[in-house]
Amino acid sequence: MNRLTNEDHVRRQILAYFATADEQVQYLLRLHAVLLLCGEDRLGYSEVAALYGISRKTLTRWVSKLNADEKGDIAALLDVPKPGRNTRMSKKTAGDYR
């Protein structure tokens, strides 16, 4: 089997894609990360977290959401609207103040 010749570059691009604010992309990231924890060849929490550049605690929270649902429905990993006031500043504008 061939290995990627530019593995680091491809990995950075994929991680940048997963870092978007798109809810669908974030949902797919959660699903894939949890999938790597399942099955015979499963990875450990620390390995999966390192692979995606997320914290182990975040991954644990996702699994807890799945475990809290009696049926283990993956819909538990979807973003739900949060209460509170919407921000007034766009992300693009917020970047100017950093």
Please tally the helical runs, counting DSSP H or I stretches of 4 or more residues: 5
Beta strands, count: 0
Subunit organisation of the chains: single chain
Helicity level: 40-55%
Q: What is the approximate shape?
A: flat
SSE arrangement, N to C: HHHHH
Q: Strand portion, in percent?
A: under 5%
End-to-end Cα distance, whole Å, is 45 Å
* Cα radius of gyration in angstroms: 16 Å
* SS content category: mainly alpha
Quote the average pLDDT.
Answer: 86
Main β-sheet description? none
Structure description:
Helix 3 packs across helix 4. The mean pLDDT is 86. The chain is built from 5 helices and no strands. The longest helix has 13 residues. It is mainly α. 52% of the residues lie in helices and 0% in strands. It is flat.
Q: What secondary-structure arrangement, pairings included, does this model have?
A:
Blueprint: H1 7-18, H2 23-35, H3 45-52, H4 56-68, H5 91-95
Please supply descriptive tags for the structure shown above.
98 residues, mainly alpha
Short overview:
The mean pLDDT is 86. The protein has helices spanning 7-18, 23-35, 45-52, 56-68, 91-95. The chain contains five helices and no strands.
